Amino acid sequence: MPAPPAGPIIVQRRVSQRGSIMVATQRIHVGMIHARKVVNVAADGNSFQVSLDGETICVAPRSATREIHRYKVHAARGASIR
Fold first, then answer.
1. For the whole model, what pTM was predicted?
2. 39 DSSP assignment
């Protein structure tokens, strides 16, 4: 098995209409002002750091112990993005 990467894992998520994202089965409220934007999430051992355009939006404590399986954002099929 390959060695785990050094440093935090960086993933992308699209903020929902209600202003939240989900990483490793944990819901994080980012804010409705960021709805439908793509954010980067740095996941380390104890927290999730959410950033948009290089600026940190929020830091949430990590309560989920599951691994992250999705890394990139994919557009919904058949849905139109405004």
1. 0.78
2. E
